[in-house]
Amino acid sequence: MALGVGIVGLPNVGKSTLFNALTRAQNAEAANYPFCTIEPNKATVPMTDARLDALAAIAKPEQVIKATVDFIDIAGLVRGASRGEGLGNKFLANIRECDAVLQVVRCFTDDDVVHVEGGIDPLRDIEIIETELVLADMQSLEKRIDRIGRQARADKDLRREVDAMENLMRHLNDGKPARTFPRAPADPIVNTLKDLQLLTDKPVIYCANIDENALSAENAQVKRVQAFATENNCDVIVISAKVEAELAGLSDAEREDFLASYGLKESGLEQTARMAYHTLGLASYFTAGPKEVRAWTFRRGWTAPKCAGVIHTDFEHGFIRAEVIAFDDYVKHKGEAGAKAAGVMRVEGKEYVVQDGDVMHFLFNV
Q1: How far is Cα 265 from Cα 261, in angstroms, rounded to an integer?
Q2: Chain segment 118-146, per-residue pLDDT in tens
Q3: What is the DSSP letter of 263?
Q4: Quick check: helix, strand or coil at residue 36?
């Protein structure tokens, strides 16, 4: 399961610079003018997870395979993007394909880097982006209402869906994102939202991009973004895209020293990937053996058969049982044999809810 995070924001806020740094691949042009990104850039990057190193030290596998995150650098949106201004329509479609949105907001001042709105105001920038996404969602919803409206006169189920969509339309018309629209699992709107993939129904992480000199100091603009994110139940991360760009070309040892000089323990890549996992309710379980140690991504709350299906659909369909060792137990007893001898390896059935860090072996029958 690859996680797709779309990097969005106004032009010249540092999106492409951040993308280059996060992926360690300078394949997205970062220039000081709007629309320098013409095609969305996508890169798959590995998730840093120290637990994999601990497992590998014990299992001594031929290879270690990390979980991955897909970062998509989407061209800068501007006022009127929902009406096609700038390169709006095309890039709104690119956002629709992502699982989460990382909205970069500029919290630094630089006279050499032009801001399309004429000055630094991250909350104004957030409002512009949110408004354009809400307007685009209203267009999508209106088309669906028009398409099934006539059929709904003779179909009670469709009538309920139309009623729910009209309620959602009023919600959007008030300037509120779809993700804040109240819903229960059985509500007709749930399937509608799944089909439409509305832009404002996606989880949002606000990324406050600051100057490198502000990493160890308080920043009034960052505080405003953090307060806004808290009020709207969203995650926020603070990064200096400029620092991340400098990190991209360093060796591991050099990176550690460079981060330490700023009082940091991890890079923006590690922070952002972990935050994306948290925002989407994702976790990792592991398989460990002489051929490979591997992290597999799953959604919290999934049962063992569903998690087995991440490896292969046959594992889910023919699931019999799972042998499970908690990560701490695996490390403490130095592997599967030691865990078995200590009696901490468990056999779990179809109802078992997999936990983050479980080391698992699935038994199945095709």
Answers
A1: 10
A2: 788 999 999 998 998 898 899 889 999 98
A3: T
A4: coil
